[in-house]
Amino acid sequence: MPSMTTRKASWRAPSVLPGFGLTFGFTLAWLSLIVLIPLSMLFIKSAGMGWQSFVDVGFSDRALTAYRLSFGTALAAAFVNAVFGLLVAWVLVRYAFPGKRVISALVDLPFALPTAVAGIALTALYAPSGWVGQYLDPLGIKVAFTPIGITVALIFIGLPFVVRSVEPVLADLGKDVEEAAATLGANRAQTFARVIFPAILPALFTGFALAFARGVGEYGSVIFISGNMPGRTEIAPLLIVTQLEQYNYDGATAIAMVMMLVSFAVLFTLNAVQSIRRRRLGA
Amino acid sequence: MKRHNPGTESRTAQVLLIGLALAFLAFFLMLPLIAVFSEALKQGLGLFLSAVSNPDALSAIRLTLIIAAISVPLNMVFGVAASWAITKFSFPGKNLLLTLIDLPFSVSPVVSGLIFVLLFGAQGLLGPWLSAQGVKIIFAVPGIILATVFITFPFVARELIPLMMEQGKDDEEAALSLGANGWQTFWHVTLPNIRWGLLYGVLLCNARAMGEFGAVSVVSGHIRGETNTMPLHVEILYNEYDFVGAFAVASLLAALALVTLVLKTVLEWRFDLHSGARH
Amino acid sequence: MIRVENITKRFGNYPALHGIDLEIQPGEFIALLGPSGSGKTTLLRIIAGLEFQDEGHVHFNGDDVSDIPVGKRNVGFVFQQYALFRHMTVADNIAFGLTVRKASRRPAKAEIKARAQELLRVVQLEGLGDRYPGQLSGGQRQRVALARALAIEPSLLLLDEPFGALDAKVRKDLRRWLRDLHKQMGLTSIFVTHDQEEALELADRVVVMDHGRIDQIGTPEQVYMEPATAFVSHFVGETNRLPDGRHIRPHDFEIAAHGRDRVLVDNVFRKGGSWRVEGRLEEDGTIIEIDVDAHEAPPAIGDTVTIAARRERTFSNPGD
């Protein structure tokens, strides 16, 4: 950039505040050391494997089955969370009832509770002899050690993503907009379908995608309830661990790479959709 | 019900929706929490106490505290520095930097562990050289710390950046115009403005650091008394069918989670920190 | 004809309206004028059906609509912050009221579209139908909100602080335009405002409210020239309140030797077409504002002048 003034040419906008060099330098250095260099190992290792062997291990039958299970259960759990997360957010924002603050805090439990603890607790509940399982077992419904159990664990893990994404948007949505719909003759169902739902849909979609992405990678809460049977209840993250335990680093890397690319694709799509929308609404 | 408010549902519909939401939360969130404590105390308080005072359990607790005591301050310093650079200055590539800081959120915990194995493990890029120097990272405490720092990397920065963005830089410019130097400005103006947000971020960072399972599991090697953190110890006891022991240690972690939630709620309530989607 | 009869409303322990009676003739343009907390917006919302009175009745053309929900009262309501649907285009916003009708009463798609275009023309926003509200200026949004309310062909148009969120220049233009539109379309309209200038300029009749009661209903001329209460006197237009309880407008003073009050002049400046003289009563230091015709020479700062009132009012209740 050619300097037009006597001021020292700089790639950043001038500021009177000090400390840019120190903080920016430290940020970049720490980011590189902790995140970028280690993560780049995945690409270096993958590149070193050659395309054919990457496909062989990354898309083996066992790996494909694990992806199908991980993505399928994460998708199912994200759907359940989209519905109930919206309901919980709605109730928390719109209605007054005793104990609301406690309930609101409880929603964050899955963020705060270590995943392994959630995992063993859910297993204790849903095992055939467990609190809930003992009633389901005679009905022929098996939850623990089946994909249903995995989905239950992912519902637990993903719920707050939806609630916390939708809540602020719902709270921000002015009451006057709904009153406007009412003065124009819309009934409550029409107001919800045509005015409220479209307004919160992007936030709901964000929450859904975050819950889904988290569910795909989730490990701790799932491995106890899943039973880990290869080909049946073996999720992709577990397959990575299995490969590592067998010192098959190539296998672990290829599977990790595939999972990460899918996660990035989901988040990238999400960002793209949001930014298109923002531009359109001129916000 | 002729005259019910047009901006909301009838009282019946409200009660129905509230009931449905509470039932869902009770079943999916409350019940597992109750199960942890109930299973831990099932065989009486004596067994519970002996389970948590067992030497292996104590060493797991010690290790977990050490890990948190190292990784949380590191991320706190990083979070403050990154927020300062990002919110007080304008430079190209800021959005890319924000995305990179968020990156660990979108990586599976297992993958987070794997990358450190690939870098420092026996067959890893630096493994042979490190073992020649007699330095052990994987299957040792440094590896656990690295994985934990990676996992909790964005927590503090994510909390501070929106807060400092909103506060702008008028206060700092005023302090400088009054003759304060950079450090004085930071200590006396910036830090008091962001302290509650900082505390909030540290709280969440700490909860995750103490509770992380997947990433730590991959790099730890599960050596009892040496590289076992509390969540890993829970897994070992559980797989050995020592359910009371597993739930006893788990209940300590659950209690930590509850304390975290209470403090978080108090902070949000008292200091009006808005809560968005958090990880 | 709209008739409001003995309306009372409480919010918890807070009495918002007591025993309000009001009649509005077809084609009238009515201003509800008062400070915040006077109950004017509550009254407007009760007439619309957005809020429900504890006691009393609202009649539209002789029918008691007290139990009719807002969507069936056929009122157009323009919200203070416009309340546009942000995810819908301007045209979809305007058409909303028609598209939510029952199939039997809903016009054909093409007709709805044509109506929206027609209304866009009326509010002078032709060609902006495909924009989103976020892409419009404040004044344009206001007009979209108005078009949306007009689309359902309301028997009554209600506007809550319609110019409150706009800057001064846009405000003035929109006012004149709304006044013309009201006449052209033969509407019956009620608007809420805290700005007395706005009320006096626009309304056929002004309803001055304070603390949940109506202090006065009258033409702008009556309200200004013959305020019924001390509150109206000082809320509508500027008024000097003298220690002895007399209310005198600045332009009703003259500087004259026969005056009985002596004022020490603190400041003199030009205000529009006259001089504004600010001073203090010698008697007790009460601040006094006096308008002096621009063609006359104003007193100098520091002078003491004698003033007389050409017109003054006293009220039994001295007001606040």
UniProtKB/TrEMBL annotation, chain B:
The chain crosses the membrane at residues 12-37, 57-84, 96-122, 134-157, 243-263. The keyword Transport applies. GO terms for molecular function: ABC-type sulfate transporter activity. It comes from the Bacteria. It is found in: Cell inner membrane. It is a multi-pass membrane protein. Keywords: Cell inner membrane, Cell membrane, Membrane, Sulfate transport, Transmembrane, Transmembrane helix, Transport. The complex is composed of two ATP-binding proteins (CysA), two transmembrane proteins (CysT and CysW) and a solute-binding protein (CysP). This is Sulfate transport system permease protein CysW. It comes from Novosphingobium lindaniclasticum LE124. The gene is cysW.
UniProtKB/TrEMBL annotation, chain C:
GO terms for biological process: quaternary ammonium group transport. Residues 2-236 form the ABC transporter domain. It comes from the Bacteria. It holds the Pfam family ABC_tran. PROSITE patterns: ABC_TRANSPORTER_1, ABC_TRANSPORTER_2. Keywords: ATP-binding, Nucleotide-binding, Sulfate transport, Translocase, Transport. This is ABC transporter.
